[in-house]
User: Fold this.
Amino acid sequence: MRNQPTLAFCTSLCFICMSLFSFSALVAQENGFYELKISEGSSQDRDAFYDLAFNLRPTASIENSSIKIGGNSGYSNLPILKLTFHDTKSFSILNQSNAQFNDVELMSIKILTVGDLNNRLDLVDVGNLNQLKYIYIECYFECTESQIKEFITYDNPNIRVFYKVSKPS
Assistant:
């Protein structure tokens, strides 16, 4: 008779521990993404950002100052929603009057080295990104919030800036 309460206690304790460990794994999903806190209104939920960033959308990829639209010919008639820079040397494309970027909501930038932070992004005078809502910066080295703030200049308080450190193994 005495073993039944002990067995029930051990089973309950095991269930509680497993629940706590699985919960911490779910919370850890958010830990890699940081948001620059520029204004009070930036504490909104991130669902729309995640939807744009990680689901298939019409995308323009820019590398070595050349533009590649999507991967399918089916994207040619759809408005470009994502703009991905694979290097930081191609920002001059934004200064060209390029009407295909009028609907861009997310700009994604890959920063490969610390030296790439010297190629700063200035969005103050860029007129063709009227719909821009999010900027997602992925650093392939250990970068800080202050480095990201120095790297990017923008004057629209509605733009939310996210960054992530992704050190390849």
User: Anything to note?
Assistant: Strands lie at 33-35, 59-63, 66-69, 82-85, 106-111, 121-122, 134-139, 152-153, 160-165. The chain has two domains: 1-31, 32-165.
